[in-house]
Task: inverse folding
């Protein structure tokens, strides 16, 4: 019996928690807080087991992904991850061991071939966007990024003199097919449009993607498929993001395009992501480790909390996921937000988590109700 089947049979779920580096631990704390409340309200039994990964793991063990952490993830139903990265390594090109290697190895070992990044805007935050309201209002994109192949995982080489280096980009039919089917299936539930982003005018790997995606498209005749070169896509994302529904792309283009798309909504602190494999899923905010904010209690926990909602979806706990998303929207609409979203009136990372947890528990009767917030009466203001 595989893990998916086990999930249908009990209300017990093992969740591996990897807080990681920078603001990772702070935002992940809030997601765990929220999942605990969800567990109480919906009667699920979540078992949280913590592991180290990234710079933190290098400092403690010398290894960015210790074997224990990998085993923990393999034996869990899902992984909740915070962030990775540390300036001490970024500024040292000679470092042999890097925090990011931990995440890349984990993705590969768990076979997390599809990275899903939803891009949305919130009405009350539209003013925060660097783009004009007319351009972004109503943007709703689902990005499917291939995650365990391409240039990230091809052979790498640097010669002894440090004067010549390469990274090989390769793809196989099998690697392209898996994620392509997922993206088409999602498009069928949405606006039925899929855009493959590539560089088929230059790269052989991109031409292979086009060929295979065209073949697979025949199985999904209700979905309109189109193609866009990545340089044009970077421009179109700013000019007219509403033209996109589902985007499908290879590993590195997906890394870049999703970062670009992530700021459309006004803050990178809002967007979650899911990395899905055959038998496991990892859920993490799109934002990085933001080391400058570490320990200050100012990081926005929403991206991590929405990643927990994607985790609930993955476990087929859709009602709970829905409740969680509504509660996040309630916080944003009530302007109960961190400093990145409101410079004048804002709340600490853990206060935003408390507000959302409280709403999940008590809904309209929530202690942090709207009038209190507006009047500044709430004791936590
Ligand atoms: C991401 C990150 C990672 C990536 C890094 C940390 C290795 O930027 O998840 O997008 O490039 O995939
Ligand atoms: Mn990235």
Result:
């Amino acid at each position: 019996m595989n893990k998916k089947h086990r999930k249908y049979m009990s209300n017990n779920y093992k969740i591996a928690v990897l807080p990681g580096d920078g603001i990772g631990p702070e935002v992940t704390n809030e997601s765990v807080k929220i999942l605990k409340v969800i567990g109480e309200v919906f009667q699920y039994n979540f078992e949280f087991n913590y592991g180290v990964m990234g710079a933190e793991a290098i400092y403690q063990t010398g290894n960015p992904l210790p074997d224990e952490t990998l085993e923990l993830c393999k034996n869990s139903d899902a992984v909740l991850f915070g962030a990775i990265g540390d300036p001490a390594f970024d500024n040292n090109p000679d470092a042999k061991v890097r925090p990011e290697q931990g995440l890349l190895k984990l993705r590969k070992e768990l076979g997390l071939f599809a990275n899903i990044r939803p891009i949305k805007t919130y009405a009350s935050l539209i003013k925060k966007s660097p783009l004009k309201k007319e351009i972004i209002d109503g943007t709703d994109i689902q990005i499917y990024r291939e995650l365990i192949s391409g240039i990230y995982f091809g052979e790498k080489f640097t010669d002894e003199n440090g004067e010549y280096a390469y990274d090989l980009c390769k793809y196989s039919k099998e690697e392209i097919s898996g994620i392509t089917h997922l993206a088409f299936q999602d498009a069928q539930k949405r606006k039925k449009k899929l855009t493959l982003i590539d560089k088929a005018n230059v790269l052989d790997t991109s031409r292979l993607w086009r060929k295979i995606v065209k073949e697979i498209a025949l199985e999904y005749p209700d979905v309109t498929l189109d193609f866009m070169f990545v340089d044009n896509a970077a421009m179109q994302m700013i000019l007219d993001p509403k033209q996109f529904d589902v985007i499908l792309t290879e590993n590195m283009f997906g890394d870049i395009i999703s970062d670009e798309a992530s700021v459309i909504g006004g803050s990178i602190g809002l967007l979650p992501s899911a990395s899905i494999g055959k038998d496991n899923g990892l859920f993490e905010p799109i934002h990085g480790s933001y080391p400058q904010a570490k320990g200050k209690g100012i990081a926005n926990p929403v991206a991590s909390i929405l990643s927990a909602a994607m985790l609930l979806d993955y476990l087929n706990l859709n009602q709970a996921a829905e409740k969680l998303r509504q509660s996040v929207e309630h916080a944003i609409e009530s302007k109960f937000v961190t400093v990145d979203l409101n410079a004048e009136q804002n709340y600490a990372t853990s206060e935003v988590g408390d507000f959302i947890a409280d709403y999940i528990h008590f809904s309209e009767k929530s202690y942090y109700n709207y009038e209190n917030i507006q009047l500044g009466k709430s004791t936590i203001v």
Q: What stands out?
A: Confidence is low (pLDDT under 50) at residues 377-381. The pocket of manganese (II) ion (ligand 2) is lined by residues 255, 259 (CB under 6 Å).
